[in-house]
Amino acid sequence: MAADTLRRTPHGPLMMLAQPMLNPALMSSAQMEGVILDHLNTAVLLFDQALALRFINPAGENLLSVSAKLVIGMSAGMLVPCPAESSVEDRLRETLATHHPFTEREVELHCPDGQRIRVNCTVMPLVQHDTALGLLMELYQVDRQLRITREEYLLTQHQATQALLRGLAHEIKNPLGGLRGAAQLLERELPAPDLHEYTRIIIDEADRLQNLLNRMLGPNQLPQRQQINIHHIIEHVCGLIKAEFPHGPTLVRDYDPSIPDLNADPEHLIQALLNIVRNGAQAASSAGRLMLRTRVLRQFTIGSIRHRLVLGIEIEDNGPGIPDELIGRIFFPMVSGQAGGSGLGLAIAQELISHHGGLIECDSSPGRTCFLVYLPLVTQHE
Predict the structure, then answer these.
(1) With 133 labelled, which of 86, 320, 352, 353 sits at a CA distance of 20 to 30 A?
(2) Is residue 38 packed enough to be buried (19+ CB in 10 Å), middle (13-18) or exposed (0-12)?
(3) Between these two residues, 331 and 304, which has the higher pLDDT value?
(4) Largest alpha-carbon pair distance within the chain?
């Protein structure tokens, strides 16, 4: 039996059919249960009497950053380890024996990918004729609402910044254009050619300010979308980084090969990812390491909008980290933590990803900085 079928047809009370039906009136109760579980925000896991995983819904896969195909059959202690005095399996075996459910709040879990999350955990025994057939575990991430609030703040912050920049650019461009035009007219009227040097300085500086304003505003064209393979885009960016930094850092890939093609503008994505990866390469330096990771996130919220599938791209370096006083402003134009930096790369990257309905977040501490790029994954069949 295929792993996907195992995930969607567990033994016991949560049995579901693998083929979804579009008409709810024609669904069996088991199929309806499957649809409901697949769309829950709460992670649901089903363990058998031996505490081996028999079912995990998409919210559970997303929460624990795992694939159901790989973890079906895994023991509870390996799947949801936590630094508690007693092991997870000991507590679950006690529940099997006593038939008493339990709830623990703000439990810290260590995910298989190394991340730590804080959840409220409820475990209920599935009992029939005084015999426990298995355990139903519900995990609710308590810091999820904090993440949604933070993302909404980032989106609002970015929109407000762009509106301010557009108004400011409009007010500057008009007198700047007049200044440049006057310098050109003056240049024609000057009797001595050696005086043209001064008018040329005015014209060149006006052009430089015009280019700076255009760069601050970012791209003014809507994405030219097409079906692309995100790994082709990332590999192209890696090639550019290797040419720019021939002596390092070491590039490490961790790709999910099951990710479908993405409907996006390849040039926009290349520019956005290049800006982030270049910063990571500079921070890691030649002796450092730069990790590029791709994952599919199911039933994931970007800002206030929930998406069935989201592409997650992580760009992680082991550099010194971003100073605390800058971490909240790194997506603002003209804010840079590097000497000589323009402070425009991340602002432009955020604008390009925003055009695709996505968002960039950053998590940084000494020795680890991770930029997370989220893009709604809309396939041709949707």
Answers:
(1) 86
(2) middle
(3) 331
(4) 107
Note the CATH architecture for domain 226-376: 2-Layer Sandwich (3.30)
Average pLDDT, the chain: 79
> 298 forms bridges with which residues in the sheet?
309
Fold category of 3-142 in CATH? Beta-Lactamase (3.30.450)
Q: Are 59 and 87 in contact (CB under 8 A)?
A: no
Q: How far is CA 306 from CA 135, 147, 200, 298, 361, in A?
A: 29, 13, 54, 10, 17
Which residue in 21, 62, 28 sits closest to 45, CA to CA?
62
Confidence of residue 190 (pLDDT cuts 50, 70, 90): confident
pLDDT of residue 15: 37
Q: Which two tokens stand for residue 217?
A: 């505003």
Strand partners for 311: 296, 375
Most confident of 44-58, 98-112, 181-195: 44-58
State yes or no: pLDDT of 295 exceeds 90: yes
98: CB partners within 8 A, 6+ apart: none
Neighbours of 252 (CB within 10 A): 11
